[in-house]
Amino acid sequence: RGGETRVGVERMFGLMDRFLKSDPSSLQKDILDHVEYTVARSRFSFDDFEAYQALAHSVRDRLIERWHDTQLHFKKKDPKRIYFLSMEFLMGRSLSNSVINLGIRDQYADALKELGFEFEVLAEQEGDAALGNGGLARLSACQMDSLATMDYPAWGCIAMIFALLISNLLRLCEWDSSTDTCYGLRYQYGLFRQVILDGYQHEQPDYWLNFGNPWEIERVHVTYPVKFYGTVEDENFNGGKRKVWLPGETHKSLVPFWQVEAVAYDNPIPGHGTRNTITLRLWAAKPSDQIDMESYNTGDYINAVVNRQRAETISSVLYPDDRSYQGKELRLKQQYFFVSASLQDIIRRFKDSHSNFDDFPAKVALQLNDTHPSLAIAEVMRVLVDEEHLDWNRAWDIVCKIFSFTSHTVLPEALEKVPVDLLESLLPRHLQIIYDINFDYIEELKKRIGLDYDRLSRMSIVEDGAIKSIRMANLAIVCSHTVNGVSRVHSELLKTRVFKDFYELWPHKFDYKTNGVTQRRWIVVSNPSLSALISKWLGTEAWIRDMDLLAGLQDQAANADLHEEWRMVRKVNKMRLAEYIEAMSGIKVSVSAMFDVQIKRMHEYKRQLLNILGIIHRYDCIKNMEKSDRTKVVPRVCIIGGKAAPGYELAKKIIKLCNAVAEKINNDPDVGDLLKLVFIPDYNVSVAELVIPGADLSQHISTAGHEASGTGSMKFLMNGCLLLATEDGSTVEIIEEIGKDNMEEEWIRSASSNCFTAAAGKFVDSRMFLFGAKMHEVPALREKGPTLKVPLQFARVVRMVRDGYFGFQDYFESLCDKVEGGNDFYLLGHDFQSYLEAQAAADKAFVDQEKWTRMSILSTAGSGRFSSDRTIEEYAEKTWGIEPCRCPF
Ligand code: GLG
After folding, report:
1. What is the pLDDT of residues 302-322, one digit of tens each?
2. Which ligand 1 atom minimizes the distance to the CA of 729?
3. Is ipTM beyond 0.95?
4. What is the per-residue DSSP string for 561-573?
5. 3.40.50.80, 3.30.470.20, 3.40.50.970, 3.40.50.2000: CATH of 131-515
6. How many angstroms does the Cα of residue 507 sit away from the middle of ligand 1?
7. Mutate which of 709, 716, 732 for ligand 1 pocket (most atoms within 8 A of beta carbon)
8. What does pTM read for this prediction?
């Protein structure tokens, strides 16, 4: 019966009608039904937002169908599952992405047109789901898309489908079983909204759930209690003693809010070109019924209710600093809340169909996305030993087989440490377990490395400093079978610096999976015209699932027809961006200028300040040149965007400086269209979708050795944007992919040494503009301190800021101090000269539009490796040991 088709099976059960249809008139009926019955508006009168809501619900229905089928299939096949634990997800908007992955975008657009609505206009109504800070969080979202999409051959077994359909009819659906489930927190307040007032950043809360969220499904029956505080007691067990954790009670008095409920909110994530639709399960904290019954009984009803509400604060706010969470009790609570709920869910699912925990590693892989969910290690030990009564060694053996850990940073301040006092009060049993793990591990270590106390103390999970702390990264490394970096260079840094001692001990544990981003979001959704152009010239849409096919564009890179169409697409995208800039800031920009973009979180190491000082230099040059020479200047629109952590004063000053410089330049009649500077406020995923396709040049200019990977560069590259970059993070691999073409020697020789306008010499076919100190040079340069040579132009532009040329002299003083007099940790002064040269080379290249277009095409053509599909495939094969499980429906 294996040859029977899906249609045959559907007919057999009369199910053809069960699946929702996607022709325009069925879609129209669905949308109008949702207007009337879900949004509760009259179908004769509803606005764009209501239309969006109805549309979203109609799409959601289709997602749910696929999701049911996927869950049933997974349940039946019971494959090994990967559970991706991440405290942050930056999903952005869901509508366009969903309909494109479902393959019904055009049908919806047609259906809406007849109803008098534009799909794009309705898509704009959706707010961003910003449950994360930056790269790490967006990476998680890209990886979700790839996890759902990965296209493996289906095994068609009709008997199995038959059985599934029966169970489907009998039981409707079992929702919570999936191969690829990602867990996160459903923060009520996402990443703050950035408002710029007088050039300063102000933060406003992002209550993103204000208008409801049609993309999630609250699973009121999927709830788990999460407990905190209490004591650990010895209990008689099987003739011996065992530890029991008695949460809540400390010194015989009850701690308030020691128990909360975690409620699941499921977000279906559809794959592209497959029926598979996986789950992003987010946990929200709700008050537990067991809280404070005493107060009720003693008549203090109001206080008891008010106190209960405080339980919800656990999942209410995302920490807006993407580097440092040290010593914050609420942060630790969030982490444990997340870990405990996820593990209860995972273990319950495992126990549904397995009785022996020795099978656990064959069925479960747990991915720690950075150190944030590392408490999961102690929690698994606690559940296995204390609740499932496995002996310690057996539990430890299981733990060592299931965890893998990915580090996303090289910055020491981002390596989390949890003060022992805090852990002891909040999770006393977990602290004991971590101590026990550490004890065994240090004993083992002594056998391996001898009594080298310095090294032992460096490698210990417990740090005996002024504040005794648990080093979460050490815990993660000791207990994981694989430690991944996010680019080759990053992995080298982990091995040779950050985790050197561990690498020497366990070289086999260390590996890397260079990050990637999803082309579905970053080309197909955000740049539909480029997407259509690529498909046309490749003669296939298959690249949407297989990015290596983009290499086929290389052969066409000199084709004049392609050039023309390519330039047209780029121009339309620039016009769209120019309109946005004008609407948002009132600044008119010319689309014939080069759009030069730097969008990312504001950080000293990312060097937005270098960019701004470069712009000041450009401005200064224009001001000081003969009027007649100005015709030689390549016009630029410099665009900067990004949020600064609310407590990061220096980063906020950089934003203010950017706006102060913009104010001066944009209003200077000497400059006109030759130079504009725009700060784009409230940079988020949706803004990126608009800005990236419109960029000619993008900057990734971190001090070498500081950016673990960087993923923005990949998005720009895919969209045919040229990169101006340092050799840092994944840029090193981008250079290898798109080819150096003698560029280094050529453009450095060709560029002028003083002023960008005077670039002379022959510019050869460079595809990137590279500059700056190399990673291995950085430490020695820093050593030089105040004796490090910096170019005169650098001193001059800093002086302009110091002297108040842009106003706010006192306010910018500390910023200037940071880059002069031996304080220039990020080497802005040292790199300034070569930065200007790279900029000059970009100007020169831009003048030759044919060459530029060719380089742009080659950038897109060379971007295949930076798809998250490739990253996920590597993780699946090398780290998680999972197989594809394609839904046959
Ligand atoms: C990081 C790093 C980025 C990296 C991203 C995803 O700073 O370099 O690309 O994770 O791995 N903490 C981050 O956002």
Report:
1. 777 776 777 788 999 999 987
2. 8
3. yes
4. HHHHHHHHHHHHH
5. 3.40.50.2000
6. 23
7. 709
8. 0.93
